[in-house]
Amino acid sequence: MGLKGKLLKASLVLILIAVLPGLPPKTVFPFKPISIAPVRPLAGVLAPNQLLNGAERLHEGGLLQPEGVAVRGNVTYVTVYGGKILELGDQGSVRTVAKLGPECVGTYSERICGRPLGIDFDTKGNNLIVADPYLGIWQVHIKTGEKKLLVPKDRAIIEDGQAASPEALRKIRSRQPNIPNGVAVARNGDFFWSDTASDFIFEDAIQALLCNPSGRLLHYSRAEGKSRVLIDEVYGANGVVLSPDETFVLVGELGGQLIRRYYLKGPKAGTHDVFIDGLPGAVDNLNGDATGFWVGLVIAADESNPSFIAMLAPFPNLRRLLVRLFVLVEAPFRLWHDTTGSDFALRISHHIGHLGGLVGLFPDRGTVLRMDWEGNIVMALHNDDTSSHIISQAVPLGLDHLLLGSPVNQWLGRVKLTPDTLALLKGGKSEPEPKKQPSVGTPSREEL
């Protein structure tokens, strides 16, 4: 058989894999075209700069994937690979506050030993609230390390807060959380949390982002011990933050490169909208204070470096094909590990579909945004020296430093803010942005 014949046969096989009904995986929502707003140009307030260049690498080699960061006074808490929550003292000390899962056998065993992501201080007790995409959402006492599982992955009580009738509202949903990610605690002790996607686990993030959006923003009632869905079909639900007066809650959308807002009080209570879109990167964690909040853009995107998610979004058949190929390649290794416990099979199945395997393809630009509560970008801080890029979260430390978390680094970044940056932050005024044309690509609920 000649080359043309082989190519034809291969093409036919791929077409069949892409379009045949009934093949795995069975997704929550069907594959449909997704429309993502064009990325804003890197001009005006978003213009490139080097304000994050030269980041110090704190505890280099000792902090594996410090994704979530929370600061209280001179003490910093970070979530790291292996199910650990660490306390970093101002004199360089490191203390393990708690370990959520069993011990790890390697960096490829996170589905077993845990990898906590979102973290926030509890408002009802000296605790941290920690979201782990494999082990659920936990309450952890800061001093004793005592743990309490609040939202288990396999038996969470979740109500559909978007249901049309009281009967449907009371119905307990069978769709369990798959990737608990971000968390924000309210003054009354309740918390808001994100479930990134329902179709795949965190280890298979590439497949999850190729499917149609199935992420959710939820509210957890401490008194009732159950959650309620506020927004469904969020494209990679990630960081969560509450406004200072708790009139609304924001959730970052990794795939859509935007932030959504859900109104908790006022005339719009119970509704949601797009807070801001077209951001120059994939939104990760959000961290707020009285005058605004910080946005970590974990994967940069711009006109020269388009998002691979956005490029594939309009093509459902192509995305379905890619997802099915990933599943077919990974399935035998997953089965091998499940039946024999093979360490080699675990290692291979972990790397297939893991977003960390694409880090070498990510743009070098690292970016953090400072926004006010009206939806204006106050300033953008960039780096181009990779001293601490792939930024998951930005948290102020003291009066003039910013800590930079990351899902891939083995250190915690720290940059000293310039006097001009501090003055702009203190004033809270945004520079004028270039006029953005009305976006015809903003995702509608039907499209998503």
From TrEMBL:
Range of residues in the leader sequence: 1-22
Record-given protein name: Strictosidine synthase conserved region domain-containing protein
GO molecular function: hydrolase activity
Biological source species: Anopheles christyi
Sequence similarity: Belongs to the strictosidine synthase family.
Glycoprotein found in the keyword field: yes
Domain annotation Strictosidine synthase conserved region: ranges: 181-267
SUPFAM superfamilies per record: Calcium-dependent phosphotriesterase
Keywords associated with the record: Glycoprotein, Phosphoprotein, Signal
